[in-house]
Write a structure and sequence with these properties.
The complex is a heterodimer of chains A (108) and B (175). With 108 residues, chain A is an all-alpha fold. Chain A has helices at 22-82, 86-98, 100-107. Chain A is rod-shaped. With 175 residues, chain B is mainly α. Chain B has 2 domains: 1-104, Orthogonal Bundle (Rna Polymerase Sigma Factor, Chain: A); 108-175, Orthogonal Bundle (Arc Repressor Mutant, subunit A). Chain B contains 9 helices and no strands. Chain B has helices spanning 3-14, 16-39, 42-58, 69-90, 97-101, 112-122, 126-136, 142-149, 153-172. The chains are: A mainly alpha (108), B mainly alpha (175).
Chain lengths: 108, 175
């Protein structure tokens, strides 16, 4: 191999340069970026926690509402049934007792 | 591990922010130049070194003695640089084109011999390139190079010598 090239002629010299004060500013940029990212992370965590709390209250409100609706519905049906005359009550019971569709649902 | 690395590690454990400032003071220049030699462009090197430092800070709890702190730091920086190189390759903008386009304000294109040496280094396979840079510029021993390049000391030594031969061949060619 032709060994004309000698590493010592160039040493560690490189064609690369950097802007003035680059290394001084780099340290500050890294720290600022770390703080910025930390703030974003805290904000995200806070938003996630807030969203979870909001979801909890929405679900809670929805569940209790549907429970109260169901309770209200049964109460009003019972009240309406009680207000009927004895004949009408007997008639309705007879009709529902013979209803095949309702009976089948109950069996299932 | 050097004395200053021991100081950095204990400072990081006592007060992460203070320790990190010590770490940056010690490693900002060698790490920047290591990355710069791999990614070539100043803008890429600036972004990459910043990302590397953020990663170092966040994952410091994963560093364990008695492993070399320098090797651990350089490994993180190397991985960041390789990610950038891979992204550039996907964008069909290979790193070497920076020299051809003369587009980077922070490259002294008039230093022909220095530009040619960097081109020769960039023409090497990644492992040889890494072994050469870490040995020639950072004067690391083969064990440290092996830890950074995820290889053995013997393989790192072989890569360095092959790299040197290929660089000499490149520099002596008339291209």
């Amino acid at each position: 191999m032709d060994n004309c090239f000698d590493f010592s002629s160039i040493g560690k010299r490189m064609p690369y340069t950097v802007p003035d004060d680059f290394f001084d500013k780099m340290e500050e940029n890294v720290c600022a970026s770390l703080k910025g990212k930390r703030k974003v992370m805290i904000k995200r965590l806070f938003l996630a926690a807030a969203a979870a709390i909001a979801l909890f209250f929405v679900l809670k409100a929805t569940l209790f509402k549907s429970e109260s609706i169901a309770t209200d519905d049964f109460a009003s049906v019972e009240l309406a049934f009680d207000n009927l005359s004895t004949d009408d009550q007997d008639y309705l019971i007879a009709v529902y007792e013979e209803d095949e569709f309702i009976n089948e649902l109950e069996l299932n | 591990m050097t004395t200053s690395d021991k100081e950095i590690v204990s400072a990081m454990r006592e007060d992460a922010e203070k320790g990190f400032r010590l770490l940056m003071a010690q490693y900002k220049e060698p790490l920047y130049w290591h990355i710069r030699r791999l990614v070539v462009s100043h803008d890429d090197a600036q972004d990459t070194v910043q990302e590397a430092f953020i990663r170092i800070f966040r994952s410091f709890s994963q560093y364990s003695e008695p492993h070399s702190l320098r090797a651990w730091i350089f490994r993180i920086a190397t991985n960041e640089a390789l990610r950038v190189i891979e992204r550039r390759r996907k964008d069909t903008m290979p790193i070497e084109t920076v020299f051809d386009a003369e587009a980077d304000s922070y490259i002294n294109y008039s230093d022909l011999e220095a530009v040619r040496l960097q081109k020769a280094i960039l023409s090497l396979p990644p492992k040889q390139q890494l072994a050469f840079n870490l040995r020639y510029y950072d004067e690391m021993d083969y064990d440290e190079i092996a830890a950074i390049a995820d290889t053995t000391a013997a393989s790192a030594k072989m890569n360095y010598h092959h790299a040197k031969e290929r660089i000499i061949k490149y520099m002596n060619s008339n291209d």
